[in-house]
Amino acid sequence: xxxxxxxxxxxxxxxxxxxxxxxxxxxxxxxxxxxxxxxxxxxxxxxxxxxxxxxxxxxxxxxxxxxxxxxxxxxxxxxxxxxxxxxxxxxxxxxxxxxxxxxxxxxxxxxxxxxxxxxxxxxxxxxxxxxxxxxxxxxxxxxxxxxxxxxxxxxxxxxxxxxxxxxxxxxxxxxxxxxxxxxxxxxxxxxxxxxxxxxxxxxxxxxxxxxxxxxxxxxxxxxxxxxxxxxxxxxxxxxxxxxxxxxxxxxxxxxxxxxxxxxxxx
Length: 266
Known about the structure:
Layout: H1 7-21, H2 26-30, H3 36-58, H4 80-117, H5 122-127, H6 140-165, E1 171-175, H7 178-182, E2 193-195, H8 200-204, E3 215-219, H9 221-226, H10 248-251
Antiparallel strand pairs: 1-2, 1-3
Helix pairs in contact: 1-3, 3-4, 3-6, 4-6
């Protein structure tokens, strides 16, 4: 599914691999220029995927902002927050794409140096050369990060929707997901209810770890009055995974606070 969304990236990766296979010696590989077109293509593919996912969540809630001078041929009445989100997503995907492209290059250079150290002939090196998880048919690391960023994108859109509806649903209830429950994560927060504008959500808005499947439930005043809810203890022992004490619906950061953790350690 996700591979099908990276059509242009797969084409550029295949081209880049052919360039490697056409090299005449190790030095030619080591001296190859940074593949700018590959980086831009990956960034473009990610940008369109993320934009599409954000619009799917938000489109039913787009309301014309009279303070914005919209172009007459626009498809959607983006709010200022939507515009800020899409620009931030675009920047994050550009950074992510550049870093992943460089990671691939570094991996190739390590392969070359290892082959040279082992005195492997260039012909034998080329005959068995692969891009590992950057093969067009694999892209494991990119897809792993893409799945995560899509979750973040959808949550950012949902937060904007919550804001539109907060006069009707002024409270949010934290619901621990099955995966987090099985791993003993986020249990302490299960069923906690807070006003939507409470600072609690600045820090504990899901996702709260890489595999987090927790969610929030909107509550009306009537719903709220019927609940027996609890607040977290003042000295809670709950610790968020590094970089997750944030609200993606407010800062629109898809990767950057923990981007290093998304890259393989060869």
